[in-house]
Write a structure and sequence with these properties.
Blueprint lengths: L11 H22 L1 H9 L21 H6 L12 E6 L9 E5 H17 L19 H8 L8
Length: about 150
């Protein structure tokens, strides 16, 4: 995981530059590991090396919930032995969508929670009561339920 907690307090220009510095790496990962994006890039003749800025992302069609429902297996980018959990949406607006999670995903979710807390000024000295659902349908709550956020406090 690429940790850079200070980036959230930088200028919009610095944040954009940071995001764009990571963009090529993320697109290459998708091209190498996701059957869905391999097919999408091929069908739409998308050369990921031509996507260098946030604005260039407009070249990629939006991925919809329907895409996730119809091609769910094609989004899995890891081997089956790396999957430690399956999580679904509630299906309130249609069929539920399943997401697979790896240990790294849970670490990332916990880190995102940490950034949320520190952005609002929370520190080790604060006592927080987190109100999350335990029905495994609330992705943001999973990090708090499974991975104590305290591990990221420095």
């Amino acid at each position: 995981m690429n940790k850079n907690p200070e980036i959230q307090f930088r200028s919009p220009e610095e944040i954009k530059a940071y995001q764009e510095s990571r963009l090529a790496e993320e697109l290459l990962y998708l091209q190498n590991h996701s059957r869905f994006y391999q097919r999408l890039f091929q069908v739409h003749h998308i050369d990921i090396q031509q996507i260098k800025t946030i604005e260039d992302l407009q070249q990629i069609p939006v991925t919809t919930k329907t895409d996730l429902q119809l091609h769910n297996e094609d989004f899995i980018c890891v081997s089956r032995d790396e999957i430690i959990d399956y999580v679904t949406t509630s299906g309130t607006l249609g069929d539920p969508v399943t997401f697979v999670l790896t240990s790294e995903d849970l670490d990332r979710l916990a880190y995102n929670e940490y950034l949320s807390f520190t952005t609002t000024g929370c520190s080790r000295q604060d006592v927080l009561q987190l109100m999350t659902t335990i029905d495994r349908r609330f992705m943001a709550g999973l990090a708090t339920i499974w991975e104590p956020v305290s591990w990221v406090w420095e």
